[in-house]
Design brief:
Blueprint (H helix, E strand, L loop, with lengths): L22 H6 L2 E3 L2 E3 L19 H9 L4 H15 L7
Length: 92
């Protein structure tokens, strides 16, 4: 049977034993604006895309995938252009 490992190091007793606050510490620290945690990374999209399940013919899918990376985006653009031409969608 294995013993449990401590997930954090033992707490220090004297404030003078506290670890030094280095540049690495501040780079990984949480940032707050007032009382609200400021998130990191890419901002959330106002109009996020939705995942869908779509059944395509094998030859159509093979041709799309053979066109290289970004084939899903090109499908989205082609569908958008088709809907704009049909008058079912307004241009951005």
């Amino acid at each position: 049977m294995t013993a449990k490992k401590r997930s954090t190091p033992a707490t220090w007793k004297d404030p003078d034993d506290a670890p030094e606050l280095t540049e690495v510490f501040f780079k990984s620290a949480d940032l707050y604006k007032g009382t609200k945690l400021k998130t990191r990374g890419r901002p959330k999209s106002v109009t996020p895309k939705e995942p869908v399940k779509l059944r395509l013919d094998a030859d159509v899918l093979a041709a799309l995938r053979a066109s290289g990376e970004g084939w899903q985006t090109r499908i989205n653009d082609a569908l958008r252009a088709s809907l704009v031409l049909a008058g079912q969608l307004k241009t951005n």
